[in-house]
Every structure is written in structure tokens, then in C-alpha cells.
Give the backbone structure.
Amino acid sequence: MTITPNNGDLTAGIAGQYAESINPEAEALVTGDVPAVFSTDETILSGEDLEALTVVGFDGNGKIVPAVAADGGTPVQAIGVLVYAVDATGGDAPGHVYRGGMFNPDMLVWDASYDTDAEKATAFNGAPSPTQIVIRSITTFSV
């Protein structure tokens, strides 16, 4: 959408041209409002350098590492999604993890072991409380 005023002399204080592109489907992370989005404070395991929106789980000591699907070697149950990038290469570091919400799987950073849509859709099944994460792609409605 581009708006161009007809007479620039009579529109003091208004921009001479305005352009806006609206595409809400392009980068929607949250694809629904139930369950509600919430996060918890967790400890990222020393040595990890994780991107924002990485699907994560707990290691054997309760620290955050990337989640790994059951067929990817030693599985790590997905319990959440890392809110911000965290570089813990210098030692354990604090991090925020989404533990609830409905998320677009195309926006998340998955371990290579999650190589099918079916694995992604069920990644959080069986996760310990308080995890309430649903994976759902963007859907549109047409008549």
C-alpha cells in the first residue's frame, strides 16, 4: 500500500509518501492463543552456543541442551523453546525458555534428528510439567 498526498503544500508535517507491506503470515511465531505463552528461567549447559528459538530439553542434570528426537541417537525430550540466543561456551549461563504456547514449526530451530513434520508435531508429547507446547503451522481460512 502506498499513499501519496495530492498537494504537498497543504500537508505540512505529513510525510510526502508512505509505503507499508503487511504480511502477517510471513514470520508468525505464535499461531494460536491456547495454551498461553509463558516462559521459565533455566540454566544453559556449559559449552552450548544456542540460537534463539532452539527447541531444547534437559540433560541428565537438569540443564538446558538441544532436544534430540528418539531416532537421533541419545534422545533428549523437548520441553521448550529458547527465547533468546545464549552463548554458554564460557560456563553455565542463564536463559529463558518458552514452556507454553502454540508455535509455528517453521520458525523454530530444530536438531537435524527432527527430519519430518510428524516428529516436530509430536516433539513435546510427554514433556514434564509445566510444559504446554503445541506445534501448529499457520493456517488460513477461505470460503
Q: What stands out?
A: The two ends are 25 Å apart (CA to CA). The longest strand covers residues 93-103.
